[in-house]
């Protein structure tokens, strides 16, 4: 009978996007592109759903730490929209719908162990760090949602995270205005649990992971099930609707999003060195 993919195989399989290390059951997944901040593209989005499935099916993983490389969480790449979405083949549009869902759904539904998000700087798709059980971030990190400012309904999961963490009114204000939430405000609002100098983030994450590992395995797994259940309900109830609204608008958008997004591209890369 086929069993789960082993760490040695999937860590090698995804090494160009996710550098993985594991010690005493603690798995660190560090996103990267050629050793620098992860540069998002469609291949990356596809890989997300697959990597969460493989990580979640490995019984030797007991706590997962998710982080980025350098001083950016990941780099948004508006140039992926060089071809207008309305001109994509219909089959590819359907694939993108499923891949967009799996990117965050598989993280929540497939991973049954405690998770720690270590947001090492400003960047796109930061909601994945806040979907973790515990989230810490670097000083100087800024959180924002640029979809509406770029002429796109916000359906990729950022507003879903804001609604469930900040509440519906604050989430709506952030969605419409694209306002920055700095690290201290994120701490005050409950978006993150701790703010630390960047060089202290991973040591603190490992400290937390080792503390979590002190509890029996049943306690760890079932506590994760309890604290992640809110996200499971939110994804089941709302994420498909939100994503469909975004993709429907893009499918009838004759102008295309690239030109609009390029005007605000520097917001994603303002801290790039």
UniProtKB/TrEMBL annotation:
<comment type="similarity">
    <text>Belongs to the enoyl-CoA hydratase/isomerase family.</text>
</comment>
<protein>
    <submittedName>
        <fullName>Crotonase</fullName>
    </submittedName>
</protein>
<dbReference type="Pfam" id="PF00378">
    <property type="entry name" value="ECH_1"/>
</dbReference>
<dbReference type="InterPro" id="IPR001753">
    <property type="entry name" value="Enoyl-CoA_hydra/iso"/>
</dbReference>
<dbReference type="GO" id="GO:0003824">
    <property type="term" value="F:catalytic activity"/>
</dbReference>
<dbReference type="InterPro" id="IPR029045">
    <property type="entry name" value="ClpP/crotonase-like_dom_sf"/>
</dbReference>
